[in-house]
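Moderator note: this is an archived Q&A kept for reference. The question asked for a predicted structure of one protein chain; the sequence and the answer are reproduced below.
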Amino acid sequence: MMQIDIITCLPRLLDSFFNQSILKRAQEKQLANVVLHDLRDYTTYKHKQVDDYAFGGGAGMVLMIEPIDNCISKLKSLRDYDEIIYLSPDGERFSQAIANQMSLYKNIILLCGHYKGVDERVRQYLITKEISVGDYVLSGGELPAAVVSDALIRLIPGVLSDETSALTDSFQDNMLAPPVYSRPADYKGLEVPEILLSGHEAKIHQWRMDMAYQRTKVRRPDLLDE
């Protein structure tokens, strides 16, 4: 079972996300366990304060090191972690290849930044990896934590009803997924490609490979370069 501990000062943002659909079923099957830790439960400051002004001035508040250290120390006393990850715009770009690798982990911590980020000492001494979900800035690390968790959990054997489904997703083998169709076969004159109705598995597989290549070549040629 994969254990994902998420440290956040806004746990309610994530409550519903992990109690729906595939992620909920994964936890009910005891294939994954996601625990949200409210950073405010680990502060010694009055009024549950977890942030303060930056030394040297400047706009925005900074998450303090003490509550983060208290929370991570408590979790590390319970189990060993494969990675302690900070979700940051300047971290390593998250990709399907990284998700495939991380899906083999047993225990990870995801630290959600907020405001102007976290005290730099957290990044220097408490975490083991930084991940970015894209070259843009969000209000906090909660959405990136949800993205990373979803990408990992769906790769765990037994989570998806079709074991091969995740292997045919976009970005596996550095290609986008081919077009897919469902009923009806003819909708207002818009027809499904005949090959998909033929029942010839080898030809269908080749068609899908060809379409995946063509789509990647047009939309994401950089993936083919890689």
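Archived answer notes: The chain has a mean pLDDT of 93.
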